Each structure stands twice: as structure tokens, then as C-alpha cells.
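BUG-472 | component: ligand-complex export | severity: low

The export step for iron/sulfur cluster jobs runs without errors, but we want the raw record kept on the ticket for reference. Input record follows.
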Amino acid sequence: MTKPSILLIEPGYIPDSLIERLATSTMPPLGILQVAAMLEQAGYPCYALDFSVMPMDGRLQRAIQKYDPAFIGFSCTAPCLPNVQQMVREIRDMGCDATIICGGYDATARPEVYLNRGLADVVVVGEGEYSTPALVDNWPNVDDVAGLALLKEGEVVFTGPSERVTDLDALPYPARHLVDMSLYKLAPGYRRSPRATSVFFHRGCPHRCTFCDRTVFGQKLTLRSADSIISELQYLERTYGVTEFRFHDDRFLVHPRRAEELLDKMIAMDLGYTWFCAERVDYLDARLLKKMKQAGCYRIESGVEAGSQRVLNLIKKGIKKETAVEGFRKAREHGIGVLSNFILGFPTETAEEMHETIDFALELDPDYAAFFMFQPYPGTDVANEFGLPWDDDHRRFSRIPHPSYAVTNQEIEKIVDLAYKRFYLHPSRIWRLARQVDHPEDLVTMGMAAISMLQGGFAGGTNAPPETTPRP
Ligand code: B12
Ligand code: SF4
């Protein structure tokens, strides 16, 4: 018997301004593609829509008419809630009664919001690899399927924690064939090759930075083997002609021994790939940096977050400012570029402390710096500790006032603008960035970025996922 089809959706958002669109890197949505790979393995025909690389303009309706899905799944991060809301309305308005499944970070942190608002018939809490196929196999009799939240007589019921993925090597590769891989690009001026894609090395992060959402993978580390990663890189080259990679892990060196094993193999095999990754400043070890460079790493993204030691302590970043200076120095010494993310407007953070952050960014002088307005993602320690509300209607650029905020949103927007201007509108940095350009169209983008910056076009960005978002 043919199994029912399943449509998986990355609600995404496409930045409003042209310049932000040009300056933002896009990558395949590995969350839904990993779940799709498991569902395909179980025999379900799957389809995917990624609205971070294409406009909605009737595509959802057309896909529903074409594939007639019995299940529609959304990957939910907090900023995407308004998009999910809009799409669920459209799905129901067209008379489609598919079972709606929500999964991902925000749905995991607060399933009740999705269930009580009628945005989900069922929520997959945490990792979706095992619970999702079991859910569709058994729907609607899913009381015995672990890892789900659903409404029973108006009450939210949780079926218990899902089985954790302990052997990442055993998972099928994400079902990248469900998306148009040619749509994904690194931002101009940010790349070494015209095409790049993302891979994962491990799950989990042992640190406890209070602003970081760790609701899905938690603190426990689960690692892939070096051989498994190399096979995937080679598969991606063979299948999609990609030779540039973004390790999208929170931290590349989180397990230094396993990372070294991977680096040694990449060097010995002389794969010739270029790649970049994220890492904390306190893990930038000279010996490993040397191997990273040899293995093709050209940039490390590192969330330094703040320039005031009081704020760094408050957010439990676990680093000293001197460590950041030292880490960046070592990366540079080994010929690896650095991008640093900074967040402005943590609870109790004063305007003076934010200016310290800008001064510190100038002192560190990374190749790229990104400044974001703090956002209290539901489920994070900082949101819980200060009781910070989340604005469900917000797509970006806002923050519900709270007594713990020392500075208004408007003031932070101004400081963010100033940060970009002070950082980028400087002859030595302009020259350094211009020298990195190896595609003519990148010069145009950079010119437009400069104009946008002068007009205040970058103000108020939401806080970046730590060590992650490439936002040149
Ligand atoms: C890669 C990444 C990005 C990429 C996304 C591009 C891409 N398509 O890959 C970029 C850089 C563009 C990005 C942007 C942003 N990101 Co981001 N990002 C990540 C990161 C590092 C990895 C995501 C990933 O691919 N994971 C691997 C897959 C396999 O895991 P997964 O997505 O969690 O999926 C699993 C489960 O969640 C579940 N699942 C997920 N979706 C679904 C759907 C269904 C139907 C089911 C059943 C299950 C399911 O099953 C999957 C397999 O187990 C995470 C942190 C992390 N370590 O996960 C942050 C993270 C998701 N990002 C975050 C944020 C805040 C942002 C931004 C707002 C930052 C900004 N300033 O602009 C934007 C918003 C983007 C958006 N659309 O919402 C937060 C989300 C917090 C929250 N509660 O919403 C995270 C968690 C970082 C953090 N620790 O705080 N991001
Ligand atoms: S910010 Fe980075 S180091 Fe801190 S908990 Fe999150 S992923 Fe880990």
C-alpha cells in the first residue's frame, strides 16, 4: 500500500531590505531534511518547501494541491511564529485537513503555544529522527510514541522524552534532494567558492551561556566519526559539485581529540576543500589552528558577545576579555580569518557597557563583526531568570519592555547603527574587505552595504545564534 505523503516546511523569513538579502548567507534547512530522510527511509514520500530562499506567492497552496499531503510539518524557531501562523491559516482556509506537526527549537521550548493556538495537531519535542516516523506510522493512536506533546480534553499532554540519537553515523544524510541546492549561497564577499553547503559534526554544547537556546540538543555531546563526515563531504562534492563547507556545529573543536582526528584525515587525504566553522575564543589552540589551516579552514566565527566583563559574567559566557584578544591573535597568526558576533542590550546592560562592546570590537578587529539586539528566546536561562516576555507578533527588531532592560529598543537601534558605522566605515577595514573580494559582483554588494549602513539600514537585528550566523 502506498504510504501517505508528507510536506515539510521551513517557514523562514526573507529579510526586508535588499541589502540584507544580499548580505545574508543561506543554507539548506537540515532540520526538516534530516527528518525527511528518516521518513523516506520508512517509505513515506516527502516534499519540502524552504521559505528562507523563496517567496510564498502561492507556492504552499500549489504544493498542497499537487502532493495532497496527509501530514504537514513545520520547523519552528521563535522569530518564525508569525509565518507559521499565517501558513496554518492558509492551509485551513483552503480546506486542507492534513495533520499539522510542529517541531524544532521554539515548538520544543513551548509546545503549549502551538497546540493551544491551533497551530499544531501534535508537537515533536526535541530530536525528531525517531519520534516522527513513529508518529506518522501510528497517528492518531500515539500515546505510546515518546517525544510528543498533544492536546487531550483541552490539556497539553507530553508522552515523555524521545529516544536520543546516540549514533549519528547511522543516520541517513539529510534529504537534500528535496530542495533546489542551487538556491543556497554564501553571502558575496564572504566566500571562497561560488557554491557552499553545510554539514554537522556533532550535537550538543557543554557550556551554559544564558542567552543561548539549547532546548533540542542540550549539553550532552554526541559525535560523528571523522570517516562519516569525510564520506558526506565527498558525497556532496560528487552529487552537487560543492567543495566549500560550513560546519554548522555550535563549536567545531568541542571534542578536540575527535576534531584533530578529522583534521589529520582531511590533511592526509589532501581533499582540497575550503571551509569555515564556529568556535569559542577559549578553545583556539595553536596546534589545532595550524592543522585547521592545513585542512582548508579559512575563517572561524566566534561569539564574543560583550565588551564589559560584568556582562560577560552575567551571561555566563565563561571567558575573560584577554582570552578573546589572545584567541583572535592566534587565529590570525595561523592565517585564519575571524568573524565575531556581539549582542547589545542584555538585561541590566547599560548604554556605557554597550559602548564598551563597540570599543572592544574595534580593539579585537575581526575581519567581520556583527552586532545584534538581544532577544530573549523562550526557554533560555536568561528569559527564565529575568522572566522576560517574548513578543509573538514580532518577526524581528523588537523587544517587549521589561524593568530589567536598562536601555530602550530605540536607543539600542541607534547604538547598533553606530557600531556598524564605527566598525566598517574605516579605511583600513574597507581596504581589508575589498582585498578579499574575488567576484566582481561582490564589490557592488559592498558598495550597497556601505550606503545602507550610512542610512542606518542595519539597526536592530535580532541576536544571532551564538557562533553561527554569517552576517557580514
Ligand atoms: C544553522 C542555523 C541557522 C542558519 C539557518 C540556515 C539553515 N537553513 O541552515 C542561519 C545562519 C541562517 C540561522 C539564522 C537564524 N537563527 Co539559527 N541556528 C542554526 C543552528 C546553528 C543549526 C540549525 C540546524 O540546522 N541544526 C541541525 C538540525 C538537524 O537540527 P534542528 O534544526 O534542531 O532539527 C532537529 C529538531 O529540532 C527537530 N526538528 C526541527 N524541525 C522540525 C520539523 C518537524 C516537522 C519535526 C517533526 C521535527 C523538527 O528534528 C530535527 C532532527 O532532530 C542552530 C543551533 C543548533 N545547534 O541547532 C541555530 C538556531 C536554530 N538559530 C537561532 C536563531 C535565533 C536564529 C536567528 C533568529 C538569528 C538572527 N539573528 O537572525 C535566525 C533566524 C532564522 C529563522 N529562520 O528562524 C536559535 C533559535 C532560537 C529559538 N528558540 O528560536 C538557535 C537554536 C541558536 C541558539 N542556540 O540560540 N540559523
Ligand atoms: S553560546 Fe556557544 S558556547 Fe555558549 S552555550 Fe551556546 S553554543 Fe555553547
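Assignee comment: Attached the raw record above. The two ends are 50 Å apart (CA to CA).
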